[in-house]
Specification:
Order of helices and strands: EHEHEHEHEHEHEHEEHHEH
Largest sheet: 10 strands, mixed
Family: Belongs to the UPF0065 (bug) family.
Strand content: 15-25%
Number of helices: 10
Shape: globular
Oligomer: single chain
InterPro entries: BUG (IPR005064), TAT_signal (IPR006311)
Pfam family, one: TctC
CATH superfamily of the largest domain: Bordetella uptake gene, domain 1
Structural class: alpha/beta
Protein name: Bug family tripartite tricarboxylate transporter substrate binding protein
CATH topology of the largest domain: D-Maltodextrin-Binding Protein, domain 2
Low-confidence stretches: 1-30
Mean pLDDT: 89
Distance between the termini: 20 Å
């Protein structure tokens, strides 16, 4: 199974305008794009979407692009609990952004929700990162083959924590089971609304293993509290940790994350949001964040991002059908 998410290489070199120094050497006021910005995260604190939202704030403040930020976290069902709230409460608001990504695409399909990620305005795809499969440090699974042997023998007895049902983590597990000759519906998958609760379950050995983005578990792995068995990228993401592909399981998958505007905003308001995130992307602070967090740059805006979303939805739906997680 080769990657179903072939990312379009896209970069932008547009710098923020008004870079002259103002009084006391501070950046000129003209550089500021929004006096205030509302950022909606349809997941609990501590996960990848929340991390992207906070990173957006960090880079924006460093570049003086936004005066103040307001955050709201509403987790559940891969973003499907929070999404209707954002749509109804922020409709037509030009200074509102929602964080979302690949997980929300799968969750909308799996849960057959009346609204989906297609009901908000695409602004920018920002990052992608491979997944990682981990176990508690005390686990009997010392290497990936120990885990896959247990999955093959008794998938129902091998509980795995991850994000919401139908998301990337669930898809990775389903594809692994399929490669082992089992059905994805046999999985003992424990879905969590945020990265924090999933980490707690893994660290407390309440589950046998966990799947998430590399950045969410990397610190726990480095600290010796979790053991990494494999990652899902084309190449290795952590020293000493093999990929699924080099371990004989032909799965390569990345988890993209991006930003969306509220429904009802006009073309000029959408352009202002795109110009703002383009300025964030071009900033030194953002480049440093990408490096320190181990995120891959997947920047894509405008029509190209909208076209990517259309393809991604179709491909996700097909994969979920193939592994028995969607009708």
């Amino acid at each position: 199974m080769t990657s179903r998410r072939t990312l379009i290489a896209a970069t932008a070199g547009l710098a923020a305008s008004g870079l002259g120094a103002g009084l006391l050497g501070r950046p000129a006021l003209a550089q500021q794009r929004f006096e205030s910005l509302f950022v909606f995260v349809p997941a609990g604190p501590g996960g990848g979407w929340d991390g992207l939202g906070r990173a957006l704030e960090q880079a924006s403040r460093a570049a003086n692009l936004v005066g103040s930020f307001q955050f709201e976290n509403v987790g559940g069902a891969g973003g499907m609990v929070g999404l209707p709230r954002f749509i109804s409460q922020r409709r037509g608001r030009p200074n509102a952004l929602m964080v979302g990504g690949a997980v929300m695409v799968g969750a909308g399909i799996t849960n057959r929700t009346p609204v989906s990620i297609r009901d908000v305005v695409p602004v920018a795809r920002m990052t992608t990162e491979p997944g990682i499969i981990v176990v508690p440090a005390s686990s009997e699974f010392q290497k990936l083959s120990d885990f896959t042997d247990a999955l093959k023998a008794n998938p129902g007895g091998t509980s795995v924590a991850g994000g919401s049902a139908g998301g990337i983590d669930h898809i990775i597990l389903g594809l692994m089971l399929k490669s082992l000759g089992r059905n994805a519906r046999e999985a003992s998958y424990v879905a969590f609304a945020g990265g924090g609760p999933a980490q707690a379950a893994i660290l407390g050995a309440q589950v046998k293993a966990g799947i998430s983005g590399v950045s969410e578990f990397a610190e726990q792995v480095k600290a010796g509290r979790m053991r990494a068995l494999a990652t899902t990228g084309e190449t290795r993401s952590l020293d000493g940790v093999p990929t699924l592909k080099e371990s004989g399981i032909d799965i390569v998958m990345g988890n993209w994350r991006g930003l969306f505007g509220a429904p009802g905003i006009n073309a000029a308001q959408t352009r202002a949001l795109v110009d703002y995130v383009t300025a964030v992307h071009a900033s030194p602070a953002w480049r440093e964040i990408l490096t320190t967090r181990g995120w891959d740059d997947a920047f894509l805006t405008g029509d190209a991002f909208a076209q990517f979303l259309t393809r991604d939805h179709a491909e996700t739906e097909q994969v979920l059908r193939d592994i028995g997680l969607a009708s």
